[in-house]
Write a sequence for this structure.
């Protein structure tokens, strides 16, 4: 009878929690889904799951190696399964969210049911799950439906439950290992990448294990340690086998992509900077009352603002730690006391871990990141460990409420208990408000996807081709957010969520450097209207379509993009044909570019001797597919017989002058003359000069050492020494003089050979050091230091002599329109058919907008003019013996429209200005602003105003300005006869720019500024091309069948000569091409991103192309399934034997 009563009570408790588990049903509107941010949901759930089943994702950009990502399969499989069972798309997430909510409640219920099984403890079993599931930390992730976080909340109580059973000797180490691993398999938060989310479970379990070890009798500790070791060994073994489906691809992958992505966060310094950012508001006091989420603060429009400002909510927040840490006072029984003590310790430990780099123990956390391998994975300290605080608080608070109720008596206790449950739900009122999915209006995480988006996906998915689609406009270069006016906001593109076709969109986080350069070049060629070069680039990147998205939030201040109207005009060109249009999206087909199939054969390739940054000339020349010399397999000569064209960049030896580099920083010494260690430091530096001052880098060594000595001598000026100086200063000055005498010899070679980059480097160092030494020389206290001033004078004389020489050399030309190049005969123009070109889009424009052709001299000979031949700009008079080429322009076009006088009101102050807009403005160009100061009597200001519209959001609302507000303010020095030179580069959503040269109202700007101009900054890219005489064999006939995204069968017919098989998917060493079961090893990067294999076999045959880690994953899935089955059988057999 009692057991039945307890069973009924348990059922009622579970039913109550299941009702609360339906809370997410309050959030959803008809036809709305959670997508974007970090939600991880596809729009087409089944398609999205199928994509994650493969270790290669071909539908995103140029292809992505997903070997590290397959662990998310269970999480993506849940919504796919629900959809497969016939549930409507818009109901899938309702079921999914309610399911996760219920699992979180029930997992906590299972834990509290185990530690407090008595029927009278029902309040603990209800209060603890409510606090745990209805906490404000997890609510932020409910707003994104982030399944890895939700699954980690399910995992924490269950892991702790079975660890507790183990330390209490209720289950064997083997059984515990099996159950713990099955829990991890089901709720492991996404495998390798999600492992840090298991951190709270590890922390709490560790404390339970340690406490029970301390608590155990001394004569039993040896047995305890043996059981613990057996548990750990079994856990590791079972972990490997039950998670083999993602561990095998991770460990056996041939690609280093994962390491590259890890390094992308900036290494150790980057992870610590991230930790500091996340920890900004995660102070102990905030976490103490379950606050501290960095996303809450400085956003008054968010729901969280009430918890920061409402006095009642602030006071209530202190009840949580008060009740939690009072629990230890109510623990009377030994067993209860042990549990409460461990959970209190867990709360405190998790609290300090969650605080990250904040005091008082932040230095320990930073130290662990630096010195414990792998701990950097916990760089988001607050988000990783706050669940352990919530878990511990939940049980402790429930325990305190229960005992307070017992003290009040039965009737009052019942009122208190239900009041607490109601109060807890009321305090967490955002859980019952569906408006909070709008996190930064108009951006939201729950939205109705426009019909034209889903209609486009349906239409495109039905097309029977595998060509890529380029997305325009170009996304933001620095912060690649994808934002749409209908609410989507996320770093992950929308297109793989809706389609299995391939879409290309610029993204520095998803591409490697080579791929980014290639894709950025595509956009640039299209913007420049170089349709011929663009179509060649599109051809080798397998792009056939362009999708114009007019609904992009191009003026969003955090991630501005180009204006869609720019591409709307470009795509009206006859080279493009619109094939689909609806709403704000339109798809265009590139007309007549002679598309390459994804898999095809070629017998001719070009080789580019330089890197991807100069690859534009490959498209300009219109050559076929290409190899980069530095990306070929070292020592591989198999491809040489296929090379018909070799191109290389010709090195500019004067362009650093054009870059207008900042002067070098003179280092401030930590040990300076007069210090005890100075003589040791100086002798060490002298040895370095001796050891490294004899090779190619000796000029750099001399410059570096001279800068160190100058920094030391600068201390003479900074310290205002009034006592006799130490002899160390004489040593420093002697060494400085010697450095510059050595530099004078090295610089003489550069002066003789006209190595302008080296000359300019010496000039930059010399100018700074000369200025410092002049200050030291003229210091008042130097008059009494005759020996010292003599040494300063000697060193200054050498520096002055050298800088005068290099300055005279640099004044030979006007460097804003003159460029000198040095020819390397080993690669640049050796061979009869060599030609030299200048990349046309690196040249300035004439007044009419056409490209300005340069003049040039070869080895200071006669002057010639460049010639436009076949779309390329060629220097036709360059002999094979040429050493130097100097190109120059008669003038530089002033792109500032006629400046007119105007008045500006700047915060109530009137300025008289000369203003003009930049003609033919392009956001991706850098502009040089110049003006001559005509007087030192009038103050001067230079303002730059961008032309763009605003996209107002709650974090950046539209502000109506009552006065002029420039986007850039420059403050020229007030000197007469000085030319001011500034550089300006705009943002992607700019449609134009106006420049203002201003002075105060009492002056005329025409009398203050002269020679006003704005010019495009340009550096011509010179390259050489030489042809090779090769006999072109016939290209074999290639047909292929895609079995799945990771497997192709290729039929080769009539191969009469060796050839290169081109596969236009992103390069990875995991792509294996096999002939008769044997791997073809001649694998190279083709076209800067794709795969190429040299094949010598002739005749007809079949090739097999597959992605290595996919096969490994299939083996892993089999191992996982068998392991899970064996584990389940073991548990059942053990349980059956126990019953028998």
């Amino acid at each position: 009878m009692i057991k039945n009563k307890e069973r009924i009570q348990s059922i009622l408790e579970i039913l109550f929690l299941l009702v609360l588990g339906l809370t997410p049903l309050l959030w959803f509107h008809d036809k709305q889904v959670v997508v974007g941010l970090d939600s991880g949901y596809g729009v087409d759930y089944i398609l999205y799951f199928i994509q994650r089943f493969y270790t290669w994702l071909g539908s995103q950009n140029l292809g992505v190696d997903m070997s590290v990502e397959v662990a998310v399969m269970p999480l993506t499989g849940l919504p796919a399964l629900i959809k497969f069972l016939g549930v409507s798309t818009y109901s899938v997430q309702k079921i999914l969210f309610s399911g996760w909510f219920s699992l979180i409640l029930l997992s906590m219920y299972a834990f509290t049911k185990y530690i407090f099984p008595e029927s009278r403890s029902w309040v603990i079993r209800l209060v603890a799950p409510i606090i745990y599931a209805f906490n404000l930390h997890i609510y932020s992730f409910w707003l994104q439906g982030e399944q890895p976080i939700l699954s980690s909340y399910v995992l924490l109580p269950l892991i702790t439950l079975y660890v507790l059973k183990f330390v209490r000797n209720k289950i064997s180490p083997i059984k515990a290992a099996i159950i713990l691993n099955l829990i991890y398999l089901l709720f492991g938060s996404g495998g390798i990448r999600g492992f840090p989310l298991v951190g709270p479970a590890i922390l709490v379990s560790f404390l339970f294990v340690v406490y029970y070890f301390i608590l155990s009798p001394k004569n039993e500790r040896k047995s305890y340690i043996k059981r613990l070791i057996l548990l750990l060994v079994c856990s590791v073994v079972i972990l490997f086998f039950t998670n083999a489906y993602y561990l095998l691809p991770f460990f056996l992958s041939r690609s280093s992509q994962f390491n590259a992505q890890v390094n992308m966060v900036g290494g150790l310094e980057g992870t610590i900077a991230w930790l500091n950012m996340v920890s900004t508001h995660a102070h102990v006091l905030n976490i103490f009352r379950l606050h501290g989420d960095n996303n809450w603060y400085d956003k008054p429009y968010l729901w969280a603002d009430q918890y920061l400002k409402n006095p009642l909510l602030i006071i209530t927040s202190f009840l949580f730690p008060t009740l939690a840490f009072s629990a230890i006072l109510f623990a009377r029984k030994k067993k209860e006391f042990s549990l409460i003590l461990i959970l209190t310790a867990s709360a405190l430990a998790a609290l300090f871990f969650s605080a990250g780099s904040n005091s008082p123990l932040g230095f320990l956390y930073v130290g662990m990141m630096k010195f414990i391998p792998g701990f950097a994975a916990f760089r988001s300290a607050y988000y990783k460990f706050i669940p352990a605080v919530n878990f511990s608080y939940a049980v402790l608070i429930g325990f305190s409420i229960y005992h307070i109720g017992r003290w009040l008596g039965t009737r009052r206790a019942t009122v208190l208990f239900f009041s607490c449950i109601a109060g807890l739900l009321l305090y967490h009122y955002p859980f019952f408000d569906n408006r909070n999915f709008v996190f930064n209006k108009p951006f939201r995480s729950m939205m109705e996807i426009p019909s034209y988006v889903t209609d486009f996906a349906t239409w495109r998915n039905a097309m029977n081709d595998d060509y890529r689609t380029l997305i325009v406009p170009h996304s933001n270069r620095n912060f690649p957010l994808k934002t749409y006016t209908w609410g989507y906001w996320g770093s992950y593109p929308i297109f793989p969520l809706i389609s299995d076709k391939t879409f290309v969109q610029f993204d520095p986080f998803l591409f490697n450097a080579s791929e980014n350069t290639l894709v950025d070049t595509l956009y640039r060629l299209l913007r420049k209207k170089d349709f011929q070069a663009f179509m060649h680039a599109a051809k080798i990147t397998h792009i056939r379509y362009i999708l114009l998205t007019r609904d992009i939030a191009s003026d969003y201040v955090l991630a501005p993009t180009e204006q869609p109207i720019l591409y709307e005009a470009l795509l009206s060109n006859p080279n493009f044909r619109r094939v689909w249009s609806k709403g704000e999206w339109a798809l265009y087909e590139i007309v007549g570019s002679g598309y390459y199939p994804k898999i095809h054969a070629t017998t001719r390739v070009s080789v580019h001797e330089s890197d991807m940054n100069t690859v534009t000339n490959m498209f300009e020349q219109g050559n076929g597919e290409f190899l980069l010399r530095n990306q070929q397999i070292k020592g591989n000569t198999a491809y040489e017989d296929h090379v018909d064209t070799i191109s290389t960049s010709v090195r500019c030896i004067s362009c650093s002058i054009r870059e207008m580099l900042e002067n070098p920083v003179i280092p401030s010494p930590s040990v300076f003359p007069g210090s005890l260690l100075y003589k040791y430091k100086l002798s060490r530096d002298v040895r370095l000069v001796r050891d490294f001052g004899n090779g190619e880098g000796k000029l750099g060594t001399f410059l570096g050492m001279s800068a160190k000595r100058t920094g030391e001598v600068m201390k003479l000026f900074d310290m205002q020494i009034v006592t006799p100086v130490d002899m160390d200063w004489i040593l420093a000055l002697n060494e400085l003089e010697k450095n510059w005498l050595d530099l004078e010899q090295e610089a003489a070679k550069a002066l003789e050979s006209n190595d302008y980059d080296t000359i300019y480097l010496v000039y930059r160092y010399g100018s700074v050091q000369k200025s410092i030494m002049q200050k030291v020389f003229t210091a008042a206290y130097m008059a009494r230091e005759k020996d010292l001033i003599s040494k300063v004078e000697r060193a200054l004389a050498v520096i002055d002599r050298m800088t005068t020489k290099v300055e005279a050399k640099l004044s030979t030309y006007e460097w804003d329109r003159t460029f000198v190049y040095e020819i390397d005969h080993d690669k640049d123009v050796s061979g009869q058919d060599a030609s030299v070109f200048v990349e046309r889009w690196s040249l300035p424009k004439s007044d009419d907008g056409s490209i300005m052709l340069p003049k040039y001299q070869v080895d200071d000979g006669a002057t010639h003019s460049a010639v436009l031949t076949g779309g390329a700009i060629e220097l036709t008079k360059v002999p094979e013996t040429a050493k130097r080429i100097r190109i120059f322009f008669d003038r530089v076009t002033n792109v500032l429209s006629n400046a007119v006088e105007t008045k500006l009101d700047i915060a109530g102050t009137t300025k008289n200005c000369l203003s003009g807009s930049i003609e033919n403005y392009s956001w991706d160009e850098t502009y040089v602003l110049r003006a001559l100061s005509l007087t030192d009597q009038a103050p001067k200001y230079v303002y730059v105003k961008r032309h763009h519209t605003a996209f107002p959001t709650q974090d950046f609302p539209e502000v109506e300005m009552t006065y002029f507000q420039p986007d850039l303010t420059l403050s020229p020095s007030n000197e007469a006869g000085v030319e001011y030179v500034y550089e300006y580069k705009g943002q992607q959503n700019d449609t134009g720019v106006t420049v203002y040269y201003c002075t105060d109202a009492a002056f005329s700007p025409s009398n203050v500024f002269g020679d006003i101009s704005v010019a495009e900054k340009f550096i011509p890219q010179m390259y050489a091309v030489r042809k090779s005489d090769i006999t072109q064999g016939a290209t074999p006939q290639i047909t292929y069948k895609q079995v799945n995204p990771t497997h192709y069968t290729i039929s080769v017919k009539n191969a009469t000569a060796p050839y290169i098989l081109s596969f236009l998917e992103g390069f990875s060493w995991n792509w294996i091409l096999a002939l008769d079961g044997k791997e073809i090893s001649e694998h190279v990067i083709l076209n800067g991103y794709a795969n190429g294999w040299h094949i010598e076999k002739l005749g007809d045959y079949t090739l097999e192309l597959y992605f290595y880690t996919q096969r490994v994953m299939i083996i892993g899935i089999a191992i996982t399934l068998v392991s899970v089955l064996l584990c389940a059988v073991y548990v059942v057999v053990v349980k059956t034997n126990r019953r028998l």
Notes: The chain has a mean pLDDT of 86. The longest helix spans residues 1108-1139. The two ends are 25 Å apart (CA to CA).
